[in-house]
TrEMBL record:
This is C2H2-type domain-containing protein. It holds the Pfam family zf-C2H2. The lineage of its organism: Eukaryota, Fungi, Dikarya, Ascomycota, Pezizomycotina. InterPro entries: Znf_C2H2_sf (IPR036236), Znf_C2H2_type (IPR013087). One of its GO terms (molecular function) is zinc ion binding. Keywords: Metal-binding, Zinc, Zinc-finger. The keyword Metal-binding applies. Residues 22-54, 121-153 form the C2H2-type domain.
Amino acid sequence: MASPQRRVETLKKIIQASSIDFVCPICLKGFPRSDALYHHFRKQGDNTHAGLAKRTSKKQSNMEEFLTCYRQSVNTSIAVESIPLHSHCFKVDFVVENYGENIETPHRTLLRVIENSKIRFSCPQCLKGFPRSDVLYEHFRRTGDNVHDGLAMRRTDFDRFLSCYQEALRASIPSAQLPSSAKCFEYRFIVEHYGEGDENHQSI
């Protein structure tokens, strides 16, 4: 099983590979662009989301409302001078680092970002996340390199699949320990085992 530090690193890689750059600090849902995030703020209809959308305003009253809503959302009394300019305060790394004032661990916060972004499966080779297994297998087929091709062959060529799976996951997991069907690609299983081989090699 991968170390806690490695799991956090893998969760961050899954989020990055899935083109999630921004996150709503209220619901911890991820977005690829800031305009999509601000659209989310505006359509929710509650005062806190609306207050976060005022980050772009230059009016003092709006900035004060934003600051109140931001602190409430991240559940921390962060100083105004510590908040990055513009939409950078909604970047995944910054929100995760400051979320919950150390009550919430980065590991748990990252898990919530992934869950709320509807990621259920992850490619062990490139760590990109997917909502369904059929979309993941389509990714395997479209990518076209030997490892991705092998990952799609669990039913047709298990030996090749296992070799490619272990190479991609960087872990020598015995076939008997693999979950059935597409469950071996569930992101939680990937996070638990990704890079085990690297860590075992370093400990020798």
